[in-house]
Structure formats: C-alpha cells, structure tokens
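ok, trying the design again with the full structure, not the truncated one.
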C-alpha cells in the first residue's frame, strides 16, 4: 500500500534512541516510504542515524538539542525550514517514565512535565505556521499510564494525561486548517530500553513472563515496528478523515476483559 509519504518532511522528537527503539524504528520506516525524516534528540546517536539514512539516499537531518529548551526547539524549527522550506508532519515521541512520584521534589516533578508534555507543546507551537501551509498533521505518542495509572510515577502520568488533553484540544483548534491531530497509546512494548531494565533484575525473565501474561492478544508485548506501522498509517492520506483519536496499539491491554487472561 502506497502511503503517499514520499518527500514529506516529518519531524520526529526523541528519534535517536537505542537501535530498535520506537523512535529509531519510526525514522527507518519513514525512510522506507520515501519520506524525509528530521531527527530531534539529545543523543549523539542521531549523527550516525543521519549518516545511515543519507547512505540510503534519504535527505535526512539530525539536530541535537535538549527538548526541554524552548529556544533550542525554536532554533531547530528555523533550521528545518531553512533546509526544506516546509514541514508536513510532527511526531512527538519524547517520553521518559522517570519514576517521579509523590516522594519527589517540586523541581523533579516539573522537569518530568517539561520532558513529557511541555516539549510537545513547544514543538507544535513552533512548527504550526509551516503545518498550516502544508495542511499537515500531528501525531502524539502517548501511554496507557494516562488511562490506567501505574503507581510511583506522578510526573509521567500527569504529563501523558496532558498529552491526551492536548491531542483533543489541538484537533479542535486546528480542524479549520485541515490539520489532523491524533495520538497512539502504547502499553508494553519490547524495546531495547525495556530489555535493559529487565536485564538489571535478578528475575528478569520471570518478570517479563508476568507482564506478558497480562496482555490478552498472544500474551506478548507490542513491537516497535507495530507502533511505527500504525504511526505511518495514521500520518498518511490513507487515514485522511481521522482526527482527535486515541489509537491503542497494545494487544488489548487497556480495554479487554481480564477474564481473558489465564495463568500459565
């Protein structure tokens, strides 16, 4: 299926995670569709990803920045427009489940909000004039924590709840410009970071089995490729009448009856 993303300039924040992360998988998938990925991230891995994409003939761009710095975001958008003269889509993908709970300080809580929510606002604010010109669209990457709670992560939960609020708010604000705004909600996704977390536990494999047994569809975690595939479809013209929606890619984790679950 041709998603008609060829030569579309797609800005992805948090794009330079570990190889196989959600961000890195999305930029690779965008390149497969002929889009022009713009990588925004604090990690220096982005330089290598940029070179890898250029080696494939993709005119990609990496900008290293702190997504908590509004001036850096504004400057990045200026740099993008100087190079491409357009922005067709923004994927807000930054997210750190940082464990900032009720025992954290005010400053720690606010830092979590800056990373996981304020960065979304600032990137869209700066890119909005270009998105209006292109009738582009916005995709926010969210989390099941916004719907279910988790415990011990007040900052992340509040931010991800805010992401859903912004998704619907922006969908209303921007419908007059034919800008679509949607969110993908992820539950348990098998990323390199997730594997590192489990590898640090003495009973990591047992913990993984316990988690996967709570996922109704196939008792397995989602994959980054499944997230990326859905993201590209929602961004594409194949999803041209979809806006203000929360798309759950989670194997039924949030919505299906727990009676489906059986002990192994």
């Amino acid at each position: 299926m041709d998603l008609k993303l060829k030569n579309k300039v797609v800005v992805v924040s948090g794009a330079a995670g570990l190889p196989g992360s959600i961000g890195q998988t999305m930029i690779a998938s965008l390149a497969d569709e002929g889009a022009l990925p713009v990588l925004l991230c604090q990690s220096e891995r982005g330089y290598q990803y940029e070179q890898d994409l250029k080696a494939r003939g993709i005119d990609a761009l990496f900008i290293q920045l702190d997504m908590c710095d509004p001036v850096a975001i504004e400057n990045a958008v200026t740099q993008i427009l100087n190079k491409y003269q357009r922005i067709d889509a923004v994927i807000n993908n930054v997210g750190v489940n940082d464990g900032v709970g009720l025992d954290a300080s005010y400053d720690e809580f606010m830092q979590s909000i800056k990373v996981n929510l304020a960065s979304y606002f600032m990137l869209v604010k700066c890119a909005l004039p270009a998105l209006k010109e292109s009738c582009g669209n916005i995709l926010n990457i969210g989390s099941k924590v916004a719907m279910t709670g988790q415990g011990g992560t007040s900052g992340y939960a509040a931010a991800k709840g805010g992401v859903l609020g912004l998704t619907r708010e922006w969908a209303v604000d921007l419908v007059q410009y034919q800008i679509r705004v949607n969110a993908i909600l992820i539950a348990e996704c098998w990323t390199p970071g997730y594997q590192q977390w489990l590898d640090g536990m003495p009973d990591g494999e047992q913990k993984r089995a316990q988690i996967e047994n709570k996922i109704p569809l196939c008792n397995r975690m989602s994959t980054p490729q499944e997230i990326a595939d859905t993201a590209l479809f929602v961004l594409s013209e194949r999803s041209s009448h979809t806006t203000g929606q929360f798309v759950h890619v989670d194997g039924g984790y949030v919505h299906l009856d727990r009676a489906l679950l059986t002990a192994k």
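Keeping the full-length input from now on. The chain has a mean pLDDT of 95.
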